[in-house]
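Why should sequence recovery work at all? Because a backbone constrains its sequence more than one might expect. Tight turns favour small or flexible residues, buried strands favour hydrophobic ones, and helices have their own preferences. The token representation captures these environments compactly. In the example below, the structure is given first.
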């Protein structure tokens, strides 16, 4: 792929990874829209690593609090709260990990079909809108129960299908459980860390086994651009989400889903 194509893919990944509009769906759509060849696993890994570093940097305070909370033998109230958050993140990660392992064979089939992306984009876009309009909760993360975390984690299973949006579906679940928008987005971002890390490790192992692992300039550039764009996207979302709500993303998904469905029906 040429430099322009690499930059576009990295920008798409950076913008869509944490916004509730589906990064996998958009990356799968790029070849449909542009006619470019598939970007390959190496660039996928590079862009995901870039977005991983972005969320680690942005939420460094939460992560340091969790680290110190786990290490302290006689924790303060803040440390206990951080430990509790860590446990909830673990609980929320388990369902997707188990489902991903159990449904591994499905990954060998064509999940990236245009019909799949269009359907998931429309359906979960509508569900996000309903949850944001009807469930106007204000719970903070410190009030999260183990059942809340498990509920959000179960919803995260749907992110195995392109077009769903991992961030979108976990934010939807958090809203359904009564959390305010900013706290829903914060938990969703933190929950992405083990998921992106695990997916990156699995894909990296595949690349090493097939001797396709080549950390060249293209991969480094893609990762760097994805990191910068993702960091900006997270900052904008966290600053504005309580003001603008999720409806702009809902309308975007509905329009995009209808366009994709039209392309599928008339292609």
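From this structural description, the recovered sequence reads:
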């Amino acid at each position: 792929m040429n430099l322009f194509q690499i930059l576009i893919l990295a920008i798409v990944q950076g913008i869509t990874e944490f916004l509730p509009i589906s990064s996998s769906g958009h990356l799968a759509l790029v070849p449909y829209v542009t006619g470019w060849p598939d970007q390959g696993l190496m660039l996928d890994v590079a862009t995901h690593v870039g977005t991983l570093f972005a969320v680690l940097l942005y939420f460094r305070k939460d992560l340091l609090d969790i680290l110190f909370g786990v290490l302290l033998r006689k924790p303060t109230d803040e440390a206990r709260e951080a430990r509790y958050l860590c446990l909830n993140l673990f609980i929320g990660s388990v369902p997707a990990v188990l489902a991903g392992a159990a449904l591994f064979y499905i990954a060998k089939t064509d999940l990236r079909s245009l019909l799949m992306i269009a359907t998931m984009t429309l359906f979960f876009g509508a569900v996000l809108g309903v949850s944001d309009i009807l469930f106007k909760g204000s719970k903070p993360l410190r009030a999260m129960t183990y059942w809340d975390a498990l509920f959000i984690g179960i919803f995260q299973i749907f992110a195995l299908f392109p077009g769903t949006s991992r961030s979108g579906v976990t934010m939807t679940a958090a809203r359904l459980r009564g959390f305010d928008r900013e706290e829903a987005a914060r938990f969703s971002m933190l929950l992405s860390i083990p998921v992106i890390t695990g997916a990156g490790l699995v894909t990296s192992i595949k690349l090493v086994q097939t001797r396709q692992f080549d950390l060249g300039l293209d991969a480094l550039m893609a990762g760097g651009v994805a990191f910068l764009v993702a960091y900006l996207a997270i900052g904008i979302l966290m600053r504005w989400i309580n003001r603008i709500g999720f409806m702009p993303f809902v309308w975007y998904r509905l329009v995009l889903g209808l366009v994709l469905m039209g392309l599928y029906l008339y292609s």
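A few observations help interpret the result. The chain is about 75% helix and 0% strand.
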